[in-house]
Specification:
Layout lengths: L1 E6 L2 H11 L6 E6 L9 E2 L7 H10 L4 E4 L2 H6 L1 H7 L4 E2 L3 H8 L1 H10 L7 E4 L2 H8 L6 E5 L8 E4 L2 H13 L10 E5 L4 E10 L3 E3 L4 E7 L3 E12 L6 H21 L5 E11 L2 E8 L7 H7 L4 H9 L14 E9 L15 H4 L5 E5 L2 E4 L2 E4 L3 E9 L2 H14 L5 E2 L6 H6 L1
Parallel strand pairs: 1-2, 1-4, 2-3, 4-5
Antiparallel strand pairs: 6-9, 7-8, 7-9, 10-11, 10-14, 12-13, 13-16, 14-15, 16-20, 16-21, 17-20, 18-19
Helix pairs in contact: 1-10, 7-8
Bound molecules: adenosine-5'-diphosphate and magnesium ion.
């Protein structure tokens, strides 16, 4: 079988790596891919949002299954266009992807179907929002409705900060039309976990839970990034809580989407806040998380191709998943300056030292090949992921591998997974 993966990040390298281990997958194409995916399959130089070119390529290369990585093409309707051309594709339709593409849609749906989430108000003009803020309880959270690459959420401790956030999103349009509508949300305390689940429209199968580190600095301090590291499993969830999340959050959401005429297939990624053993939805994403996918797929014992195929053919009720008991930890190596301005083009050394290691993988994110060398080409560059018999061992193995890698301006956190060890 031939598979096309759309995207260029660490998530897509991990998907390519896992799919390449399936006995049923012959050839893998990645559009546009990175230096890591080029070692597994063939990179195709098409941008993730050039949907007509992707459809044309998939048809001419006779692709049996396309797996969409990032949210942008999903919210643009790539799945609808592939299906219209009779091409099998794993992901939600444009209407279903609105669950991530519009936070207002998501919040309204959660409220309508009584799925636990923070209380909120929705605004389409800045004056009413500011009026509301005068009497709103602090702290609170202000969110741009649309996609903002993880930067459209502002946690406000004071009234002044909240007014500034409204002005930034709605008046200055810092994220363009994403800020046409905003959500003002109750601040939830607790600890966050990510549950990625696979849905075929009716049946939903959760993957092993993971926790990520969003902030740039140690101790979860500083501005949020796409994610500086992740680990799976997490000591935060008991099996009873996982069952509760399936029953009270994931299944009702899939059912709600069906009731709304927006059948949801693909990955349903729930960002959850856990407090006193109880989960509330922070948001949904409509795709695999990055970097959570890297540790989660390293622990999966199933054939990923068969799982994704079952999801596209509405046969998920026949699937049961199994996981190694080992813990996986992923440490992201980023370019100095990320999530702000950073440089590209530094030569990365040491990758050859990790090649062939069974329990440690350097998943590439922002990398490219230049004159025979691997160079940095993005903010998040590598995700060094290791399996260990305990979280502590996985951390030690991951950081030992990190030491082998070098480039001019490498930055990483030194405490990935530490909060899980403290808790265990
Ligand atoms: N209601 C809330 N209470 C506390 N923290 C929140 C709340 N909503 C969001 N956050 C924080 O902001 C981060 C980003 O918010 P999220 O809704 O996941 O948007 P996005 O990932 O699209 O930026 C969350 O991971 C969480 O740390
Ligand atoms: Mg989020």
């Amino acid at each position: 079988m031939k598979v096309l993966i759309i995207g260029a990040g660490g998530r897509e390298h991990a998907l390519a790596w896992k799919l390449s281990r399936s006995g049923r997958v012959g050839k893998i194409f990645i559009a546009p891919g990175n230096a890591g995916t080029a070692e597994i399959g063939e990179n195709v130089d098409i941008a993730v949002d050039d949907i007509p070119a992707l459809v044309k390529f998939a048809a001419s290369a006779k692709i049996d299954l396309t797996v969409v990585g990032p949210e942008l093409p999903l919210t643009l309707g790539i799945v609808d266009d592939f299906r219209a051309s009779n091409l099998k594709v794993f992901g939600p339709s444009k209407l279903a992807a609105e669950l991530e593409g519009s936070k207002a849609f998501c919040k309204d749906l959660l409220k309508k179907y009584n799925i636990p989430s923070a209380a909120y108000e929705k605004f389409t003009d800045a004056d009413s929002a500011k009026e509301y803020l005068k009497s709103a309880k602090l702290p609170l959270v202000i969110k741009a409705d649309g996609l903002a690459a993880g930067k459209g959420v502002i946690i406000c401790q004071t009234y002044e900060e909240a007014v500034a956030a409204v002005e930034q999103l709605m008046e200055e349009r810092a994220f363009g039309t994403a800020g046409e509508t905003i959500i003002v949300e109750e601040f939830l305390e607790g600890e966050e976990v990510s549950i990625l689940a696979i849905s075929d429209g009716t049946t939903v199968v959760p993957l092993a839970p993971a926790q990520d580190h969003k902030a740039i600095f140690n101790g979860d301090k500083g501005p949020n990034t796409g994610g500086m590291g992740a680990y799976s499993p997490t000591p935060l969830l008991t099996p009873a809580m996982e069952a509760d999340i399936l029953e009270n959050i994931l299944e009702p959401t899939i059912q709600a989407m069906e009731d709304e005429g927006r059948e949801y297939t693909g990955v349903l990624y729930a960002g959850l806040m856990i407090k006193d053993g109880f989960a509330k939805v922070l948001e949904f994403n409509c795709r695999f998380g990055d970097p959570e996918t890297q540790p989660v797929l390293m622990r999966m014992e199933n054939d990923l191709f068969e799982l994704l195929m079952a999801a596209t053919e509405e046969e998920l009720d026949e699937v049961s998943l199994s996981w190694t008991n080992a813990t996986a930890v992923c440490v992201v190596l980023a370019a100095k300056g990320y999530p702000g301005k950073y440089e590209k083009g530094s030569v990365i050394s040491g990758l050859d030292k990790l090649r062939g290691q069974k329990d440690t993988i350097a998943f590439h994110a922002g990398t490219a090949e230049k004159d025979g060398a691997v160079v940095t080409a993005g903010g998040r560059v590598l995700g060094i992921t290791a399996l260990g018999t305990s979280t502590a061992e996985a951390i030690t193995k991951a950081y030992k591998a990190v030491e082998a890698i070098e480039w001019d301006g490498v930055y990483f956190r030194t405490d990935i997974g530490a909060k899980a060890v403290q808790k265990a």
